[in-house]
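Tutorial handout. Part one gives the primary structure; part two gives the three-dimensional structure as tokens.
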Amino acid sequence: MRWMRLGVLALLFPLVACSHTVNGQPSPASAEPQKAPPPAEEYRIQAGDQLDIKFFYNKDLNEQVTVRPDGRISLQLVKSIVAAGFTPEQLTDRLTKAYAAHLKDPEIAVIVRSFSSQRVYVDGEVGKPGMLPLAGPTTVRQAISQAGGVLYAGNATDVMLIRQGPGNQALAMMVNMQKVLDGTDPSQDIYLKPFDIVYVPKTAITNANLWIEQYLTRMVPRIGFTAAFPVGSGIIGVDTSSTIITPAK
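Part two.
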């Protein structure tokens, strides 16, 4: 199983945390092998990018502009021109032609000062969930590390990678980061693309503890009731006279 539609995965994901092992055997990995960073595509300007427009022989026309949400920039002499979707070299050619009506042999350079679209998101059981800048080739492991690492309650064997596919279709993949960390399958350390989302879920034992806390310790009258529940190969005990969940003896 490789990339799958997110709608289908959403129905199956609640079962994943409890089913990443079957009869003691890990489930098959779904990650696509990647031994080297993918070749970098030529960058295309996006809305929100900051651009430096420099004129070699007319420095009074130099400007720093931000690409508007409609993809356009406004400059002196040239009122408005589309910048989004073009490479810096292509935009340089467009501006050179536009300014040729006002200047003799204009020499222009377009420099992208900041990249608004080069970012990914890490969420779930990590130290610092949120947005991360994608400054260069970055893998799932590196992104999780930048986000503070997997917390104690996190499930490193069933990390979800969500990516925008063709036609804006959301695709998802399960990545076993435990195999990356212990060196048994480094190929699962996928390289990220802009707008990817890395989600680290809770472990099955954490979900069981949360269920007990919500439905037993808060709903059962606190009369000293105790109970033990099998979870995987272990047992969890609860004493409703307190909110502390401890292993049963």
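Part three, for discussion. The first helix runs from residue 6 to 16. The radius of gyration is 26 Å.
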